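#onboarding

Welcome to the new folks! Below is a worked example of what a typical request in this channel looks like: someone posts a single protein sequence, and someone else replies with the predicted structure as tokens. Don't worry about understanding the tokens yet, we'll cover that in week two.

Example request:
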Amino acid sequence: MLKRITFCLAVSTIASLPFLMMPELAKAGSHQDRGFPEEIDPSKNYAFYLHGAGIENKGPSDDNKYYDILEALEAKGFVVIGEVREAVPMGKSVKKVAKQARRLLNAGVPAGNILISGHSRGGKISMRVSTILRKPKVRYAILASCGVKKGHTSYNNYQKFLAGRASKMKGVFLSMWEKDDYTVGPCDAAMNLAGVETFENKILTVGGGHKLFYKPVPSWINPLVEFALRK
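Example response:
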């Protein structure tokens, strides 16, 4: 039986989780890519974080703080893998991340210690990685990327994904979006096609819409971390 868990999180809910309060971000000067680690420690937790299309075109900015997000995840104890990518075909990015994740697995990192996450286009890349890795315990966080609504520029591509590779998705999934983002929605269609046994939809009610995920605020960072570290 398929299990779907849907949550609606308000800012007051997040504030009631003291053990997940945001630490101080890393000091200035660490605004740089996090490439694949030179040494792999199988006891660590690894987090891939993939940005949206806006950064492909314009790079990180004061409004779209990709490096701050990487720093926030590092502050939570993850070995972070995240790089600003060029506007290349999505398949190229999918293959690169899948290859890196396989290297972690082959080095002895437990599948449950690997998080592959991304916002918008980055989330779409993450979903496609799951169709290649096909490891049921690898965790995927899909941020404002599922249920693309008709009229959005990526609607047709999302429909092609549903008609094609979506049935091959495998892993543990969290889908999260803000209620004022009218371009996306739940991941149910993709998950049902794949027969994913358990997945979570989290609807945030803190405002900000699609741009909420441009900065590492507790309302989405904390649920992401809790999901990644859950045993």
